[in-house]
Amino acid sequence: MLFDFLKPRSNKDNRFVSEEEAQNDLVPGQIASNYPLIELLRQHGVTENDELKLEFAFFTNDKTKAESLKAALGSRSNYEVAEVDKTKKLWRLTGWSSKIRMDIDSVNLWTFDMCKIGFDHDCKFDGWGTFPEKKD
Question: Most CB atoms within 10 A, among 58, 90, 111, 134?
Fold first, then answer.
């Protein structure tokens, strides 16, 4: 099932990202924001057949969680994961994906995957960006 990863688990009281927050962030949040971003890329000459690396960001309240996510993302082929660093009160992890096809279905699937892996490591996926002029 599409939202199986959001089913209640034990010991949720200490989570940074609740099931409800993750679900609300996924569809009305992250997935919905993909449409105007893709449209903006179209205005800059990026077609649905182009492939671009996507910059991503996650936040969490614990360095161990961020390091765990870093290891999981780092094991993916052609992912570049930057160092985990601390902002005011949260830990931030940033990096770049492998090339993603710039059609809405591929971007939505990638976004879903990022939200899921973030949730699995109790980190909040904070979105993506890219540089349309760097197609190589």
Answer: 58
